[in-house]
Write a structure and sequence with these properties.
Shape: globular
Oligomer: single chain
Largest sheet: 9 strands, mixed
Order of helices and strands: EEEEEEEHEEEEEEEEEEEEEEHEEHEHEE
Helix content: under 10%
Strand content: 25-35%
Radius of gyration: 19 Å
Number of helices: 4
Structural class: mainly beta
């Protein structure tokens, strides 16, 4: 595939980059780029993981294990992860990704950042304070995806999680200008539903909320395959501002994110967004190495709940990412944002049969 037609700006997918770096040592923006040629190893080596907080990346199950943090919402327990921060020093202190564009999220949309508070007991000793959230997702809706005969657009799409009027994955501690990407992935004190996801994000495969002296609380999340600069990558996806995108990607629907500055923005003053190239059509097949597109994701596993029994039957659209935080060039690394401004394209019949990673050329038929 070398070209697309009708590239349109629209769906804003809030995802968190977790770069799994390819063996050629391509470093990228907030994802862990990785060679998906496993070469006999079930787990990715630590030197190929960009998101340093990741405890492990299981290439056989296509799952990443991350530290899990406890918060509160009006007396209710909330569980969240931390993936990005707008401050360089704090991002590295937390083993998160540095995403300076996050500082622009309040531009034109102050409500797109939750102002949160911290509570720490007087006896606290070398432990986290509790983050008090203003909004949370409702994970109770049943995710429904009925693909059309072509796979995309769908005959029916209903997200499995919806953020309330005050929910945003982006938080700012009272008194601080730093913006963190801290998506909520579960609510309550358990037991946790990791099969149908009635109280967990639709990409949660396992959750352990009981930390020990040797190990933190953790969550296992289903990864997404994509590409950047011609190299295969893996990343995590947590939110989307469009209900169809949220359904296909198994993420939380947060319409508020549509207001983040600014539509069609990328490397411009005041922008909090980065580009991602998504294809509505492409080659299909569960084991077809050239399969790509939302149609393939819909036809092969799209209707399934993500859990330990279905992992091998779920396919990805193989989206093409923009700037990557692990690139050696600071210009590209600092252009990274976990907020991806979707450029939706469709392959022409003439170009549909060519290799999908040629899409990194990002040419457009007129």
């Amino acid at each position: 595939m070398t070209r697309t037609t009708r590239l349109t700006r629209g769906l804003l997918a809030g995802a968190s980059a977790l770069a799994l770096l390819a063996p050629v040592a391509l470093a990228g923006h907030g994802r862990a780029t990785a060679s998906v040629t496993r070469q006999g190893d079930a787990y990715l080596s630590k030197d190929k993981i960009v998101l340093q907080s990741a405890i492990s990346v299981d290439l056989t199950k296509n799952v990443v294990r991350l530290p899990l943090h406890r918060g509160a919402f009006h007396g209710r327990t909330v569980w969240y992860i931390i993936t990005d921060a707008s401050d360089y020093g704090l991002a590295h202190d937390l083993n998160a990704l540095y995403a300076p564009k996050l500082a622009n999220i309040p531009v034109g949309c102050p409500a797109c950042v939750q102002d949160v508070t911290l509570t720490a007991p007087p006896t606290n000793r070398f432990d986290e304070a509790i983050v008090n959230f203003q909004g949370i997702p409702d994970f109770s809706p049943t995710r429904v995806l009925v693909p059309s005969a072509q796979g995309f657009p769908p005959a029916k799409a209903q997200p499995g999680a919806v953020g309330d009027a005050h929910y945003s994955p982006f938080i700012r501690l009272q008194g601080s200008p730093v913006v963190y990407n801290a998506p909520t992935v579960a609510t309550g004190n358990g037991p946790f539903d990791v099969m149908r996801h009635s109280n967990t994000n639709d990409r949660v495969i396992a959750i352990n909320t009981k930390p020990t002296a040797e190990a933190p609380a953790t969550v296992d999340l289903l990864l997404v395959h994509g590409s950047d600069s011609g190299q295969p990558i893996l990343y995590i996806n947590t939110e989307a501002s469009d209900p169809v995108a949220a359904t296909y990607e198994r993420t939380t629907y947060v319409p508020l994110l549509n207001k983040v500055s600014f539509l069609g923005g990328d490397d411009f003053i005041g922008s909090a967004r980065e580009r991602i190239f998504v294809f509505g059509n492409g080659q299909t097949g569960l084991h077809n190495p050239q399969a790509q597109g939302e149609n393939n994701a819909g036809l092969f596993g799209g209707a399934l709940d993500a859990n330990v029994d279905t992992l091998s039957r779920i396919t990805d659209p193989f989206n093409v990412q923009g700037d990557f935080p692990s690139l050696d060039s600071p210009r590209h690394a600092n252009a990274y944002s976990p907020l991806w401004d979707v450029q939706l394209g469709f392959w022409t019949p003439r170009h549909r049969a060519t290799p999908k990673h040629a899409a990194d050329r990002r040419e457009c038929d007129s």
